[in-house]
Amino acid sequence: MLGKTVLYVPGFDHAGISTQAVVEGRIWKLEGKTRHDYGREAFLEKVWAWKDEYQARITKQMRRLGGSCDWDRAAFSMDEVRSKAVTENFCKLYEDGVIFRANRLVNWCVHLNTTLSNLELEKIECTGKKWIKVPGYEKPVMFGVITSFAYPIEGSDEKIIVATTRPETMLGDTAVAIHPNDPRYKHLHGKFIKHPFIPDRKIPIVLDDIVVDMEFGTGAVKITPAHDPNDYACGTRNKLEFINIMNDDGTLNENAGERFKGMKRFDARGAVIEGLKELGLFIETKDNAMVIPICGKSKDIIEPILKPQWWVNSKPLAEEALARTRAGDVSIIPKTSEAEWYTWLGNIQDWCISRQLWWGHRCPAYLLCIEGEPRPDTSDSESWIVGRNMEEVTERANKAAGGKKYTLEQDEDVLDTWFSSGLWPFSIQGWPDKTSDYELFYPSSVLETGWDILFFWVARMVMLGLKLTGKMPFQEVICHAMIRDAHGRKMSKSLGNVIDPVDVVEGASLEKLHEQLYAGNLPEHEIEMAKKGQKADFPRGIPQ
Fold first, then answer.
1. Quick one: average pLDDT of 462-486?
2. Is the Cα torsion angle 161, 164, 167, 168 positive or negative in sign?
3. What DSSP letter does each residue of 139-182 carry, written as one string?
4. Which among 14, 140, 162 has a CA at the least distance from the CA of 75?
5. Of all residues in the chain, what percent are helix, strand and coil, respectively (each to 5)?
6. I need a labelling partner for 63 at 20 to 30 A (CA). Which of 100, 268, 363, 539 fits?
7. Would you tell me the crossing angle of helices 335-346 and 314-326 to the nearest 10 degrees?
8. What is the per-residue DSSP string for 60-100?
9. How do residues 193-239 score in pLDDT, each as one tens digit?
10. Exposed e or buried b for every residue in 71-106, given b needs 16+ CB within 10 A?
11. Which residues of 453-523 form beta strands (DSSP E)?
């Protein structure tokens, strides 16, 4: 209307974790089957069918609301053009040394069986003893307590007391740390601990003035490097053994010892305490204020687990984003969001982009297995061949193999959804190809979005945009408030409080609203709760 050339591209995100979780829940609810019953390809066919159904529904909603989009340019994050962009993104960052492979602690969701980023976590605060419902357990699990127990010192009758909020992790302990200046333990320097359940494991007493506070507790800290972030750092400093005691399904593996092998993690917690009591090593359990990390999707308790994954070295990308923001290339509105922007980018950590899902962009990385040689280390970047297509992969594999026979195994993992969404401002214009749309419409002018995805999405778009195109993807970011229900809650399918905008346009009876609840994966008791909420908020339905 002002005579300017304007483009409004409608787009759809594949929402990797959420979509897979919904479809898995649906086939379990309707058929009593899992994705493994179908296999990868057959399961993905079901996901694509679900995606087509819901994309059509979203399109209808947008059209009914009067969205003046260029529908001929509709983009989906896993269509051919966007998939090409994701592959180019991975390969370019890998070739530049920004993407690397490493065996590090990750946030593991047992229920969804995948890694999560820190941004995908929520927290439960406990001021003391608290019972929490955990997926996969019939009875609630107790948190908000700390358990003290004694470790016997090798070669003496002496014991050293440690404390933990996760007793089952003592099965993965590889050290007890003390402060080098603590006079109480000077005589224990260089000594070893006897593990009460795993007699052939030799546990050293190490000196560490970072992880140990002499004034806190007994001044002795159990160290489980493979299952705790602070212990991981301590293990790295002191060159300790990293012993993973947990399978991906949340059961304990053979490293936990014969007595506990096969137990579910929180069942093992009680069993370890009982075992310590039998041996006279249990001291006490008392209330303890703590914060419990949970999965934002499944509400499962997050488990720190050591896994080889693909990572993005985010610091140099964030530094460039901060420099360009300070230079005025982009403005963040309101000011509160701008302050958070600077804080988050200034304290950014490496970004784990591997996800153990089937729905998403599969990593364009192939493990090079040389015939007659030991299986390569999957945590080493050098063990992998990365390429934009099989022709490029084969050429690079031939060179790396040096004439030896080999096989290639593509990484089973897919990439974090935000790794593709972060390309959106330029991938919708045809990047990495230099199309006329790219030349005309990139960069854009204004991004209007919710403050809750400022870091999930906006920061990634800025960092990747600057790295891959050299341009700030937009000049202005306007963060709107979050749309909530009448009770101040975020609208969520898991709460059953989402409102279909078409129902607002056309009207919907209370009975129709109730029926819509059954189309999702809500358990029966949650459907009944959602019905009560609908009845209270819309006793006569939604008027036209």
1. 93
2. negative
3. S-EEESEEEEEEEEBTTSS-EEEEEES-GGGGGG--EEEE-TT-
4. 14
5. 40, 25, 40
6. 539
7. 140
8. HHHHHTT----GGG-EETTSHHHHHHHHHHHHHHHHTTSEE
9. 999 999 999 899 999 999 999 888 899 999 999 999 999 999 999 99
10. eebbbbbbeebbbbbbbbbbbbbbeeebbebebbbb
11. 476-480
Are 447 and 478 spatial neighbours (Cβ–Cβ below 8 Å)? yes
How far is residue 434's CA from residue 451's CA, in Å, rounded to a whole number? Answer: 31
- Tokens at residue 223, please? 């160290």
Cβ-contact 442, 469 below 8 angstroms: yes
Q: How much is the average pLDDT of 6-13?
A: 93
pLDDT, tens digit (0-9, with 9 covering 90-100), for 349-395:
999 999 999 999 999 999 999 999 999 999 999 999 999 999 999 99
| Residue whose pair of structure tokens reads 């990390």 in the numeric block | 293
Q: Token pair for residue 164?
A: 């933990």
Note whether 347 and 314 are within 8 A (CB): no
Q: Which of 456, 461, 417 is nearest to 443 (CA)?
A: 461
Q: What is the C-alpha to C-alpha distance for residues 317 and 323, in angstroms, rounded to an integer?
A: 10
Please enumerate in sequence order all residues whose Cβ is within 8 A of that of 92, keeping only pairs 6 or more positions apart, or say none. 468
Q: How many Cα neighbours within 13 Å face the side chain of 80?
A: 1
> In degrees rounded to 5, what are phi and psi of residue 167?
-55, -30
Q: Which residue has the tokens 């002496």?
A: 158
